[in-house]
Design goal:
Layout: E1 3-12, E2 17-19, H1 20-23, H2 31-38, E3 42-44, H3 54-68, E4 78-82, H4 93-100, E5 107-111, H5 117-130, E6 136-143, H6 156-159, E7 165-174, E8 180-188, E9 196-197, H7 207-213, E10 224-225, H8 227-248, E11 258-261, H9 266-275, H10 287-290, H11 297-307, E12 316-323, E13 327-334
Parallel strand pairs: 4-5, 4-6, 11-12
Antiparallel strand pairs: 1-7, 2-3, 6-7, 8-13, 9-10, 12-13
Helix pairs in contact: 3-4, 8-9
Bound molecules: acetyl coenzyme *A.
Acetyl coenzyme *A is lined by residues 29, 33-34, 37-38, 114-115, 156-157, 160-161, 196, 227-228, 230-231, 234, 264-265, 268, 292, 294, 323-324.
Length: 335
């Protein structure tokens, strides 16, 4: 068995910064409410007319990650692409990325696990490398939320938290068993699927019914979130996933050098930080600048933390996420 380690990281966010005050121009909200409840100050939203899409942003982040890994596109053996907002209903974004990066006919797998998407994606990639099937896998999380949000007061409980962006990691084979991904832990609880959902378009609804109804008031195309319910589950599941990862490796909380939590809400991260008694320099947050970028959030945060020199050789890095599904999980890595 081989080990896998991250050999390159990259992220891309659109230039267009949307502050809380700007949101208050088209919905009944305000900077104080958003910052107090979520910690978010601003987010990036793709400007209408821009060429950026979920897969285009994924490709931009990927090019940086591949270059930093010291590799060429042709060195990549497989793609795992996590998103809840693919460019098309089908096919998924993985094949578009494969085409944009001109990666011959390598396989491309799409992961549909929302905020836990990157955790699931990197875990899948790790298994392919562990068995020796592939050497270098491109693992991408990308999200284009802003085109699908209800940007009126009706949607304010959801739309203020989401942002656009993409991150990418190259996962490579290493023979050093002390480095890289030590373990990953994945969970789901489908009975809560409808607490955080975009229910249309859906194969449950006949397409002619959708076309015939053509109803502007149909809210099922917008994300629905039972915020308080999700929040309560998130804090419990985050803690469980982190503890499970530590126990599996005979590690203690004090061994954590860097925790990268999914950026769902700064209050959730702060709750986890207090619960585990971690210092500020042991937890990385950037939700203040980017909002919740779902499948992209963990990988954007990991990349930024690394770029800022907050992750050093041999550090114990813990990734954890919770989101729609419900799905949640953790990854334990030795850098
Ligand atoms: N601006 C001003 N007021 C608002 C806004 C807004 N943007 N949004 C809601 N309100 C109002 C509500 O209408 C409500 O008013 P009322 O009391 O008069 O009815 C009041 O503020 C409180 O609303 P709540 O929804 O109870 O607010 P809450 O404190 O729960 O915060 C939030 C909402 C931030 C969404 C929080 O519940 C949360 O972060 N939940 C978890 C999110 C999460 O972890 N998601 C998982 C990942 S996402 C994914 O997987 C796709």
């Amino acid at each position: 068995m081989y080990n896998s380690k991250i050999s390159g990281l990259g992220y891309y966010v659109p230039d267009n910064i949307v502050t809380n005050n700007e949101l208050s121009k088209f919905m009944d909200t305000n900077d104080a409410w958003i910052q107090e409840r979520t910690g978010i100050k601003e987010r990036r939203w793709i400007k209408e007319g821009s060429d950026d899409t979920t897969s285009v942003m994924g490709a931009k982040a990927s090019r940086i990650a591949i270059e930093r890994a010291g590799l060429k596109n042709e060195d990549i053996d497989f793609i795992v692409f996590a998103t809840l907002s693919p460019d098309y209903y089908f096919p998924g974004g993985g094949v578009q990325l494969q085409e944009m990066l001109d990666m011959k006919t390598i396989g491309a797998l799409d992961v549909r696990n929302q905020c836990s998407g990157f955790i699931y994606a990197i875990s899948v990639a790790d298994q392919f490398i562990k068995t020796g099937m592939y050497n270098n896998i491109l693992v991408v999380g990308a999200e284009y939320h802003s085109s699908g949000l209800d940007k009126t007061t009706r949607g304010r409980g959801v739309s203020v938290i989401f942002g656009d962006g993409a991150g990418a990691a190259v996962l490579s084979r290493t023979n050093d068993n002390t480095k890289g991904i030590l373990s990953s832990h994945l969970h789901s609880e489908g009975k809560h699927a409808e607490e955080l959902i975009v229910s249309s378009p859906s194969s449950k609804r006949w397409i002619n019914e959708i076309i015939d109804s053509n109803n502007k008031e149909d809210e099922s195309y917008y994300p629905y979130m039972n915020g308080t319910f999700v929040f309560k589950h998130a804090v419990v599941r985050f803690s469980e996933a982190i503890n499970e990862g530590l126990q599996a490796n005979n590690l203690r909380v004090s061994d954590i050098d860097m925790l990268i939590p999914h950026q769902a809400n700064l209050r959730i991260s702060q709750f986890i930080q207090r619960k585990f008694k971690l210092n500020d320099d042991q937890v990385f947050n950037n939700i203040m600048k980017y909002g919740n970028t779902t499948a992209a959030s963990v990988i954007i945060a990991l990349t930024e933390a690394w770029e800022k020199g907050k992750i050093k050789d041999n550090d114990l890095v813990v990734l954890a996420a919770f989101g729609s599904g419900f799905t949640w999980g953790s990854v334990i890595m030795r850098w």
